């Protein structure tokens, strides 16, 4: 079955290096030009195992208000989101493309989820789940992902770093 990608990037002024409000993904290399830490060797940097019930309620609340069905948390998507949040935090970059060249679709497949639709929102710096959801809802591309009625499952991961938290929201529908 043909795979369809629905991917959007969140670039805030702090992530994009300016106040332009760009909606393309941006990669910032780590200092010193060091090689990225391989995915298998990533330290576990305070990644949340699952979104709180509060986040699930907030996300499903905005979906309900837009006529979209509720999403269900999926631990396989959680593994993919955790992998990417960890990668960005440990390797000091901000992009939908992993340090190993992986895409959201590859990370989700690697986690054992057989998808036919997948999307990803990323963010850096928001202090809590409400702030990150507000940021995504105030960005047209991220809002479209959050409200897309075709998605059925989701996961949210947060990885702390000295540069602030990295957030990854994966939305998908299985084949």
UniProtKB/TrEMBL annotation:
A Pfam family reported for this protein in Swiss-Prot or TrEMBL: CAP
Check the UniProt entry and state the signal peptide residues, or none: 1-21
Question: What SUPFAM superfamilies does this protein map onto?
Answer: PR-1-like (SSF55797)
Q: Which UniProt keywords apply?
A: Signal
Please verify whether the record's keywords include Signal: yes
Judging by the UniProt lineage, the source's domain of life is Bacteria
Name all SCP domain ranges.
58-169
Q: What is the protein name for this chain?
A: Uncharacterized conserved protein YkwD, contains CAP (CSP/antigen 5/PR1) domain
């Amino acid at each position: 079955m043909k795979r369809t990608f629905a991917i959007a990037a969140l670039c805030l002024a702090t992530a994009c290096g300016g106040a332009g409000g760009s909606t393309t993904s941006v990669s910032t290399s780590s200092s010193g030009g060091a090689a990225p830490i391989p995915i298998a060797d990533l330290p576990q940097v305070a990644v949340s195992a699952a979104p709180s019930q509060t986040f699930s309620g907030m996300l499903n609340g905005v979906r309900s208000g837009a006529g979209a069905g509720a999403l269900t948390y999926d631990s396989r998507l959680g593994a993919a989101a955790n992998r990417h949040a960890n990668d960005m935090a440990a390797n000091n970059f901000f992009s939908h493309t992993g340090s190993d060249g992986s895409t959201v679709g590859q990370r989700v497949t690697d986690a054992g989820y057989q998808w036919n639709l997948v999307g990803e929102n990323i963010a850096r710096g928001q202090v809590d789940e409400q702030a990150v959801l507000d940021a995504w809802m105030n960005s047209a591309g991220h809002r479209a992902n959050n409200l897309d009625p075709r998605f059925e499952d989701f996961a949210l991961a947060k990885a702390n770093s000295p540069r602030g938290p990295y957030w990854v929201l994966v939305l998908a529908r299985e084949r």
